[in-house]
Queue: 2 jobs
Job 1
Amino acid sequence: MKIAIITDTHFGARKNSKLFHNYFEKFYKDVFFPYLDEHNIKHVLHMGDCFDSRKGIDFSALQWSKRVFFDKLVERDIEMHLIVGNHDAYYKNTNSVNAIDLLLEEYDNVITYNQASEANIAGLDVILIPWINEENEKITSQLIQKTNCTCAMGHLELQGFRVNRQITMEHGMESKLFEKFTKVFSGHYHTRSDDGKVFYLGNPYEIYWTDVNDPRGFTIFDTETLEHEPIDNPYRLFYNIYYEDQNYQTFNTSEYKNKIVKVVVRKKTDIKKFEKFIDKLYSSGVSELKIVENYDLSSGYSMENEDVESEDTLSILDRYIQEIDTELDKNTIQCLIREIYQEACEIG
């Protein structure tokens, strides 16, 4: 039987931005639920970080998530298994207080897991592993060792996998702890990567500039063959435009309405034509526009390197940390900075 796996939906993201939630909703309305309907899929596994903020959720974001996602599952009589991710847990050292247990009690079709457990999903016995912390690490390790399940599904922080296109995680648990399993699927990292046994499936949609041009979507998993297939989300929110004295009159800007756009200037010989190009973008209804120029190409900088062009706050911080001269572990510093940044966003 085939089931759908989705992870890191981050309802309430970007401070409950209407722009982002409209973009998210288009994915669920046009891609996710139509696929489930067409293929008569009645089981969904959500692998954590259902909600974005550890500290709380905006009431309108909660209402949105119920209308767009949870109520749609009920309408279709779909059972969902949902594990606690690090963004769902209020405390860092325990999963006992978490958003999914507190906010989703009304949904009888949603089965939640705040500690490692064995479960039968569509006829297959699997071990489900929520976010591992100080309180549950020992119990989780013991269950991993004794279980006879062939597949593990979790919200794991493992070494050697991509956090995004720029960063590979160099600390965390070792993947050899899961070598007994035939397949391991995980949420937590938002980009897809694997080593042939452990598969990070990636989140459904773009949230930051580091996500641009990186495939997003959900996964279909066959519980009989153990084969899985990514289903891509065709919709984008972030766009790079490379400007090289384009003719603004013939440049089609229609696809950039309600999008976040970055214009990377490679060549600009006529300022007035460039200004008209930018004016045309604004008139097309872009939601946000950034302009990147004045790079010293003689320094060896490559404009093809889209990763370096990522300009959100986390990208700038990550890049700065990688460039500083220090004997300290840079990946550890990056993780600490990301945690501090996330908490600052939640306070703000």
Note: Residues 296-311 have pLDDT under 50 and may be disordered.
Job 2
Amino acid sequence: MKNQIRTIILLSASALFCQNLTAQNVKLSGKIISPNSDSVFLQYSERGESGWEVIVLASDALNKQGEFQLETSLDSAKSVMFFDGLEATSLYLLPGDDIQLSLHTAYFDETIRYYGKGAERNNAIAALAIVGEMNSSSLAGLDEKMDTTALFERVDEITMKVQNTIDGYEELFPEMSTVWSGKKKQAEAGGKRQKAGIVFKRQFNKLKEELVGKKLLEITGIDLNGEELALSSFKGKTTVVDFWATWCGPCKAQVPYLKEMEEKYGSEVNFVSIGVFCKEDEWKEMAEEFGFEHNMFVSKENGKYTEQYMVNAIPRYMVIDKDLNVISIDAPRPSSGELEKLF
């Protein structure tokens, strides 16, 4: 019995010793030029019972020179994000890493540099982010009148080049095989999105040609009292339409600018706030908080009204003249200072 107890104790001590050997501190320090906020974070996301949750491993306040020091303990490799309060970048950390980072927020991804133990693999990840941006820019610069088949071939060529680049990095850093596999899937999915974007853009440009200068395609919903409301009822004044949703951060960020415009031009222009892609009760509560004079809700069941204008991303703004002729179905955002030029 004594020998059995002794064996259990030895095994427990051995397990604890091995655990102490594998769990090591990871350090990430550095300097940020022109910081976006006063703190930085080392974090990752995991799916919980209520959805995706952000787990913060370490955080630190920047000093006056924009310097920081983050430290956490890891017992295995981990993919994480470095977040500066506005933008983020991916890292792959191993126990014992001691990495120094430098960046300038004016060109966030382009200026990230890593030094120290663990720097090489993370510089490779950073380089792939730049490759992605370069590819997007090269596609954006192509002639919009170029044949769709030729454009798709260009997208496939770029996707293959990215995947070949990832294969090269995988040979250098085989311990990150799961990361590289994910990057290749992202590249493939990105190529499909680019093709879909090309098709959408061409269809949308055609729709603009068809609708601008023509009579409004009717949109019907309900107002805050639950009464039926038609967009055509605003005939007699220029009308600015704002498509938004309760969950849309960029939509809500534009509200103060739109409110300011309503206060300035409200006697001459109708500002119609239309809630889409969200729940009616949540829309009503938030719309009342925003306090616009004219509010409408279009349910998902009435999606035909948004589909006819190809509203698949928000915020979106439209401008209609006093006679219900369409001026723009893709007007500038209120914050741009360009929207009022269409009144």
Note: Residues 177-211 form the longest helix (35 residues).
